[in-house]
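Continuing from the previous page of notes. For each protein in this section, the sequence appears first, followed by its structure tokens. Read the first protein now.
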Amino acid sequence: MLRSFEERERAEELLFVIGEERRFLNRRAGAQALADFAIRKLGCDGQTGRAYADVLIDAMIHGASNEALLERVRADLAANLADFSCDELRAVMLGGSDPALRSGPVVTPRSPARSSLRL
């Protein structure tokens, strides 16, 4: 009985970790789509564009909300005479999310090299 409980508990923890990872990847995909959109509108070259995307994704990783990212990109675009509303940018951000990640959880096998999680 105890072993069965521990196995269920580990399974629940694993599902939680997978869900959190999926939410993170979904949010990162949205930030990347937003950065790509801004890069195209600003006419940035390759290296500058990559740096801009890295800054946005780094801000997301360090806790910036989606609204803060949207406002930052809106301000950057407005400073370069490309006026977009936060709603338009939000649509770009949500459109950049992988639909498979937005749908329900799908458990896929992972290779040990990709994950440091050991249960």
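Done with the first. The second protein uses the same format. Note its length before scrolling.
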Amino acid sequence: MFNFLKSKKASSEVLNKAMLLVVGFNKTGTTSIHRLAQKSGYNSVHWDEGKIAKRILYNAANNIPLLSGYHDSYQVYSDMAFRCGNFRFDANSLFMQLDHDYPNAKFLYNYRDIDAWLESRINHGEVVDGETNIQYYRRLFGTSNDLKIKNFWRNERLRYEDDIRAYFDGTNKLIELNIEDNKFVDKLNNFSGFNFKIDAWGQHNQT
């Protein structure tokens, strides 16, 4: 896990702005949350073809606030991931640094049943650099055994959950929500202070 805790602070205007960082993995309703935010009138950015994650890496290496280049324009961030060649990066792993750089931000750990999530990742058909998600991992692991890949994803998620819960324990900065909770929007609103519209909540990019 990368955590560079000495970066320069963002401007006071950015620091005082309401911000929601969606730090669940892909295939846990990130597109639905993004659309919810947009339809509710908030500036939201989702994946941006990997550019968010790449910018975060650049910012971390140059000791500047992680969301610089985005934080003047957006309030809601989701699916901050990037992969190419043999490299993969999930910027949700930098939750400690994001909290340091944006101390007023709220964090949403969005999740779903772990077995359903694993199947959804296997079935995800979007192609990036000529490969679907499962094709990329098969090549990376040098295997056609999808169970091996599922076990890797399962363990990665469980370790991440332990880490993020330990870090935010005793604070009011993190909420964990199952995307299948029928009170998802109500709970998110009560926690975040945002006013997301219940009728704007729906499923998108489902696999």
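What the second structure shows: The helical segments are 12-15, 30-39, 51-61, 95-101, 114-123, 133-141, 146-168, 184-192. The first helix runs from residue 12 to 15. We return to this in next week's lecture.
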